[in-house]
Amino acid sequence: MRAEIDEGNFAMARMIRIFDTTLRDGEQSPGASMNLEEKLIVAKQLARLNVDIIEAGFAYSSPGDFEAIRRIAQEVEGPIICSLARARPEDVDRAWEALRGAPKIRIHTFISTSDIHLKHQFRLTRDQARERAVDMVQRARGYVEDVEFSPMDATRSDPKYLYEVLEAVITAGATTVNIPDTVGYAAPQEFGMLIRGIRENVPNIKQAVISVHCHNDLGVAVGNSLAAIVEGAGQVECTINGIGERAGNASLEEIVRGLRTRKDFYGADTQIQTEEILKSSRLVSNITGMVVQPNKAIVGANAFSHASGIHQDGLLKEKTTYEIMRPESIGLGKSTLVMGKLSGRHAFRQRLEELGYKMTDEELNKAFERFKRLADQKKEVYEEDLEVIISEELQTIPETYRLKSLHVESGTDTVPTAQIELEIDGKSSRQVGKGDGPVDAAYRTIAVMTETKSTLLTYVVKAITGGTDAQGEVMVKVEEGAKTVTGHGSDTDIIVASAKAYLNALNKLAYWKSRKDEKISYKEA
Ligand SMILES: [Zn+2]
Question: Which residues pair with 150 in a beta bridge?
Fold first, then answer.
């Protein structure tokens, strides 16, 4: 065992494919649904992170998912783009329709192999399920070369039957076989042994890549994935920040950093651009509204801060005394000053391109205007500020409600009062209202003006960079009926940021209502 000194060593490492399912399984997290524009932004960041495969959605489930997969497959360069499909002809066909014409594509089809699922949910015999798996893999192979098959609930399936199904689908043309611990039931050693059993008992296993997909119900999704890699898995399915159904999926950043930091042990690595990890984590957290816990490994706010005096003393003398990886290796550094008030449009575009963002002229103009306004309020603009501007400006949700002006009075001796002017569907409207505090007054007034029936679930405010002139960023979650949306707003004035975040959420609700596409219910792999 050694502390990480040089990441370039261990040239013989086996390369593990990273299959990111933030946009499919991650998006199934309660309250984490993303719209088309948000999915595109995340997919582009996943490409910068250099993941091997992006599971962009489940084409058959809704027109929204279909369209997101189609756009991502057409517009995002680099990774293979994949759609999930149940083992049904209409699902496989729909996945193909969403992907067709794009350069690098994969269809991922699945059916359960556990008796519990087959008997109670699918009402199929083992023979029927295997036959259907084979048929659908063949159907998918009729469309694409790259086909993945998952035996859902593999960890609760009879291993003998599981081996038979895997052999049959590989013969039918599956190029990746993915072993899901669908309900997060497996223990690491046991899961490792299952992968070993598959390698030893499926005669044609060398013709396919073994993949794993672990859920975190017992807190060992990453441990299970790593145990599987030790036993020969060549692909891992995971999500940014570990978001996903219930307790979530294996977290991408933990697997990637785990392999890189302990390459001496695992003898395996990935092609992930680890310096993009923190940026990816912040982006997904911002868009989904799923806050990262401070003590989360790798990307938590405290992950690299040493509080103990003894540790600090050691670190000052020699970094490797208590630091097993460099903070810069995940993209954590000092906030870098990027631009000031006098920076021009050309420099702005250049800086964005250096950060990896390519924008159309129209997007650039909008972002630049926003940057100028910010630079007027705040002398120094940091990289993090630019990221927020970009992610907000790229979200082209139609503005049913727009904030024209806001004036709030509050203090120790006044009843907090908000005076708000909104543009609603192009028409100007003014209102005055009171509340328990300045934010409450503003929100109550906006609620009256927009006649919203929604409920505010979460309100979080944070500073984007240090200093009292920093931009405040507000994230809200708003629920109406069964739909939850996340709204964001940022401004150097917290109350203005709060109003913007609320209106952003209400705009998303209005947008959603205008193009309602209820997802059909389905079971995930
Ligand atoms: Zn899953």
Answer: 110
Ligand 1: distance of its center to the CA of 121 in Å?
17
Nearest Cα residue to 428 out of 440, 436, 420, 439 = 420
What are the two backbone dihedrals, phi and then psi, of residue 124, each rounded to the nearest 5 degrees? -125, 150
Q: 103 C-alpha vs ligand 1 centroid, how far in Å?
A: 26
What tokens appear for 491 in the block? 């401004």
Ligand 1 centroid vs 213 CA: distance in angstroms?
7
Per-residue model confidence as pLDDT tens digits over 246-257: 999 999 999 999
Identify the three-state secondary structure at position 358.
coil
Q: Whole-angstrom Cα distance, residue 100 to residue 355? A: 31
For the segment 171-194, what is each residue's pLDDT rounded down to a tens digit? 999 999 999 999 999 999 999 999
For ligand 1, the distance from its centroid to the CA atom of residue 182, given in whole angstroms, is 6
Query: 85: left (phi > 0), else alpha (psi -120 to 50), else beta?
Result: beta
What's the gap in Å between 267 CA and the centre of ligand 1?
Answer: 27
Q: Which chain residues have CB less than 5 Å from ligand 1, an ion?
A: 25, 524
Give mean pLDDT, residues 7-11.
53
Report pLDDT digits (tens) over 366-415: 888 888 888 887 777 777 788 777 777 766 678 899 999 999 999 999 99
CA of 525 to the centre of ligand 1 (A): 5
- CA of 261 from ligand 1 middle (Å) equals 26
Cβ pair 239, 253 in contact under 8 A: no
Residue with tokens 């296993």: 205
Kindly give the distance from the C-alpha atom of residue 21 to the centroid of ligand 1, in angstroms, as a whole number.
8
Q: Report the candidate in 39, 75, 41 with the shortest Cα–Cα distance to residue 57.
A: 39
112 Cα to the center of ligand 1, angstroms: 13
Structure tokens at 489: 């707003």
Yes or no: say if 169 and 147 are a contact pair by the CB < 8 Å rule. no
Distance 181 CA to ligand 1 centre (A): 8
- In sequence order, the 6+-apart residues with CB closer than 8 A to the CB of 119 are none
In order of 5, 23, 261, 270, 424, the CA distances from 274 in angstroms are: 16, 19, 11, 10, 44
- Cα(523) to centroid(ligand 1), Å: 9
Closest CA to 19 of 163, 205, 202, 235: 235
Contact 73/82 with Cβ under 8 angstroms? no
Q: How far is the CA of 476 from the centre of ligand 1 (A)?
A: 26
